[in-house]
Amino acid sequence: AGPASWRARGAQRRFSRRISTVPPTTRSSLPPLAQWAEAASRHETAAAKMQLRGHRSAAEVLALWESSVGVGSRRSGAVLAAACLWRLGQLSATVTSVDARNINFARLLELVSKAAEQGALGPSALCDALLAAVYLRERHAALGPLLTSCAQALALQVGGANSRELANGAYALAKAAFRDLSVLRSLAPEAADGLRSFGPLDVCRLAWAFASLDCREVRLFRAIAEEAAATLVDYGPQDLSNLAWSFASLAIHDKRLVQALAGEMRAKLREFSAQSLANMAWAFSALAADLPALCLQGLAQAATVMAEDFSAQGLSNVALAAAKLRLEEVGLGRALAKSANRRLEDFKPQELANFAWASAYSGFNDPELFHAIAQQAVAHEEGLNAQNLANLAWAFATLGLPSKEMFHVLVTSAESKLSLFAPQSLANLAWSLAKLRLDSGPHLSLLRGALATEALSKLSEFKPREIAALAWAVAGIGGEVREGSTVARLLLALREEASQKLCSFPPHELSNLVWAFATLSMGSAGEQELFHTVAQQAIQRLPEFEPQGLSNTLWAFGTLSFREAELFREVSHFAGANLRDFKLGEVSNLAWAYVSAGVDAPELFGQVERTLAGKLLQLDARTGASASVLPSPEAANSFATEVLGVLWSLSFAGRLSDDLLSLARRAASRRDGGQSSGSGPSRCPEPLPPALSPGRGGRAGEPRVVAAWPDRLALLKPPDWIVDPDRVGAAGIGQVSAYLSALLPSRQWRLAGDADHRLGLLHRLDVPSSGLLLVAKTLTAYHDLQVQLAVGLLVRDYAVLCHGWLPPDRGGFCARVHWVDRRSSRSVVRPWGRPSYTEVQGVAHAVRGAEAFTFTRLRIKTGRRHQIRLHTSHAGYPTVCDGRYSSAGTLRADSPWCQRNALHRWRLGFQDGAGAVREVLAPPPPGLSSALAGLEPRAGSRAAGAAGEPFLWLGSMRQKK
To answer: What's the CA gap between 197 and 204, in Å, rounded?
Structure first.
């Protein structure tokens, strides 16, 4: 849309200004006789128009023309007819349907049209006729053909037109949306050659006309830019905004003109109307103008003051400009939101979508406003085009506002319009659906089905940013990618398309791309080839990476165990020298990547340790004097997670010093402001409830406390009890969290009701397994035990009965464990799985009839889901009675003599709050003991490590038999 106020602005002078003396023709090459003829034509036209000045109605004008028919020459009659049409255009608001049906009106139009075709009208009369036809619009069917005749005639006489006529002719064609651009293009050379004779209004009308019809005549606009930049001081605010709008609409960037426009705007800001300011702001943003800080500040301040005066379109344009130009005026976002909230009903669908997108891009989150935007989007769903749908989805997803009703409407509407989506809109919609992770079948089915299919058909048109966003979206929705599915085919195509365009990927998009493929755990040869190429690109462009992008890139390589030695070496040197610029979470990801990939980097690990120590010392200094300076709970939790990640990596790599560990434990002790219990400090042990004292339980089959301290306790979990607080077990499955709620009332023990801290539970234990659980009763204990868990001070030993004879010299299992899908509960061994290690501490071979078994003592160094059960099964020694990791036949054979999974956590080792080493033991429960009692030792075997406690149990049970 062009400047909407031009007609109002020119209402009083639309035609009258053209009567005044105008510059001579723009073509000095016309022969003298032709120049005389043009001058005579203009004189005739001006005289005829003067004759009509006193006529105030269409009836009077038509009566004058009727009385003059047949009087004078054919040429003078044609000129008078054109002048009458010109006057009717001036009086268009008063022309009634009766006037339009007047036979003389039809004859007048016919005569002017024929005169134009026969060359009887000069440029001045033709321009008048064109403008009149525009303003009379649809009053008569003959106006369309007349406009075409006059336009074609003007193209033939363009050499004789002056600046005003060229500008008005182009303006009329644009107002009429005349699609034959050959006529407009015929004006361009003449206008470019004679531009110095144009006034500001003529320049603006000319530029606006070409921009409105999307006619990109570069030579003309180069001339306009040169002329305007030198004369902008003569331009008013509306002229400035109209000129800027024209260049922006055609995406023609002239640096000198932009800087001149910015300077003039700043000098005349107080004279700008709201609409002119909005147009100016939009133009600068569309041109991605690099404006001086003072100019941006002035623009932002003026927009804040005028916020209530902007139209809906103006608000949308200013919001877009604020986002793209990074206008940081305090209060601008609030002022725009307040004004928009009052007039949302006036917003057209595109304006609504643009305003939402711009607000989200600027990070302005007003839930009340966005709720109203969602309601408007739902109400006007039919008017939302593909880009509007994508922009709305992107805005709500960026701000984390899951309006389910609106997204249901967006998804339904998008599905019917997917063929109209451009690649950018497809990528944005996919990203939005994945970002919000709405638990809705239609959303996921759209992303995995129709949207994926549409993206496949257009993938060659995708730019690097769109490829990375689409890959990110597919990774974000999670789920297993089935071979041959639409999503699988899309991922293969994305990989191939990305491989061809990698040289064009910015570092940020390279990072997003490999992150997506790593998250999907796609470690095939094809991905390895892609990652190798990415590694080469990354090495060449390391200084261009942001810290987050670099750490995410290495995280992706580490996740898939792609050991690109040169990349890891170069990043080690580069990141080590720049680690001060990394956030702690980025340091954690970087360190984890090296550990996961099995790459040793002593210098980098040393720098990582020093970086963490520095941050912990800073925290110690801030919180040592007063608990009032503690960070928010959210920030503290995030910081703690990052610290634990770094500690784990350093410990796993064997690079953790005692000094750093002490510093980390001291920091952990201050996480809750020094509170050592749920309701206040506690200096002495508290007695346990009688029914739950160590060694005594409540009802049969329930958990029971086996050891307790003032701030922590050890719990024995029976089989078929679920530990995870956020999971609900099936029928017959008990909830450890419910038991803890009864044991530790949250009114006294705040942690027992704190889901963010897992109710104090430090670790998991599979539902079918039994054994010891460590539970923190206070935040201080919880944070301290988390540190111990991360660095291996919290020891977890298991007694496991498995099939087959495990070799006595088997040191352990180190297969990498991958959790297939968060919606399932199965883990698998994959090359791209997480680093995992299970240590074998002793074995005893046994038989039951013709079957071989091993009773073994295991210790886990990592705590992956189902780690022991998966490791033993993968090595060929599945645990007894395991319905998930052994065959159905094996399970059927095990069930009659062992009714439960033969895995029991029998020992916990840790340090208490004072640093003393503690140990808790729990013999196998009766169900497992009876199964063990049915075993016989292997003849002639020697049990390695048989002095361990579980093996004493096995011996004693054999004696009891």
So the answer is: 13
pLDDT value at residue 190: 92
Q: Give the orientation angle of helix 255-267 with respect to helix 293-305, to 10 degrees.
A: 50
Instruction: Tally the C-alpha atoms within 13 A of residue 858's C-alpha that lie toward its C-beta.
Output: 29
Element (H, E) at 798: strand 795-803
Q: Could you count the other beta carbons within 10 Å of the beta carbon of residue 887?
A: 11
Q: Are 862 and 835 in contact (CB under 8 A)?
A: yes
- The answer to whether the CB of 178 falls within 8 A of the CB of 133 is no
Q: What's the rounded Cα separation, in Å, for the pair 598 and 600? A: 6
Which sign does the torsion angle of CA 199, 202, 205, 210 carry? negative
Backbone angles phi, psi at 775, to 5 degrees: -125, 125
138 Cβ contact list (under 8 Å, min separation 6): none
* 862 close to 789: Cβ distance less than 8 angstroms: no
For the chain, which ranges sit under pLDDT 50?
1-38, 625-628, 674-698, 823, 944-948, 954, 956-961
Those residues with Cβ within 8 angstroms of residue 561's Cβ, 6 or more apart along the chain or in another chain: 523, 596, 597, 598, 816, 831, 832
Q: Render 165-203 in DSSP notation, one character per residue.
A: HHHHHHHHHHHTT---HHHHHHHHHHHHHTGGG--HHHH
Q: What pLDDT score does 70 carry?
A: 58
Give me the domains of the chain, ranges plus CATH numbers: 424-504 (no CATH), 690-787 (3.30.2350.10), 792-960 (3.30.2350.10)
Query: E-strand spans in 849-931?
Result: 851-860, 903-911, 917-921
**Cut 0.85: pTM above it:** no
Give, for 774, the enclosing helix (H) or strand (E). strand 770-776
- Look at residue 688 in the predicted model and tell me its pLDDT: 41
| Distance from C-alpha of 768 to C-alpha of 369, rounded to nearest angstrom | 50
User: Mind listing the pLDDT tens digit for each residue in 558-578?
Assistant: 999 899 999 999 999 999 899
Instruction: Give the pLDDT score at 941.
Output: 65
The full DSSP string for 808-870 is: TT--EE-PPEEE--TTS--EEE-TTSB---EEEEEEEEEEETTEEEEEEEEEESS--TTHHHH
Residue 858 near residue 800 (C-beta atoms within 8 A):
yes
